[in-house]
Amino acid sequence: MVMQMKEKILPYKCKCGGILKTSHTEVEFFGIDFGIHDCEVCTKCNSEYLSDEVMERIEEEAKKYKLFGLEKNISITKSGNSLVVRIPPDIARFTNLHYQDRARIFPTQKNKIEIEVSS
């Protein structure tokens, strides 16, 4: 069955500056099929953004299968006017993160951030 959805341009932009529109996508993470869900798609970089509810469902399912073995608590300290986030060595190795890499931080909720590493 093919789902039909009328596209709607959204009043806010993607982190790359592109225009976001409503769409739907087949959601699969870690080999687990979560079906088709509504999402927002960037017309510039093609990034797809799922709702917090869908992401929470994916996280819960992944935890059941112990797929978040690298999930760790980290410490945040102050250095001058900045905060320093200390990444545990096993996560740094898994993500191929090095001390000279640059990262961008995106607040996604009041108590949640997304970090994107760019070497």
How would you characterize this protein structure?
The structure is a single chain. The chain has 119 residues and is α+β, with helices and mostly antiparallel strands. 16% of the residues lie in helices and 44% in strands. A four-stranded antiparallel beta sheet has the order 1-2-3-4, covered by helices on one side. Strands 5-6 form a two-stranded antiparallel sheet.
Structure in a nutshell:
The protein is α+β, with helices and mostly antiparallel strands and 119 residues long. It folds into two domains: 9-64, Roll (Ubiquitin-like (UB roll)); 76-118, Pemi-like Protein 1, Chain: D, CATH 2.10.260. Helix content is 16%, strand content 44%.
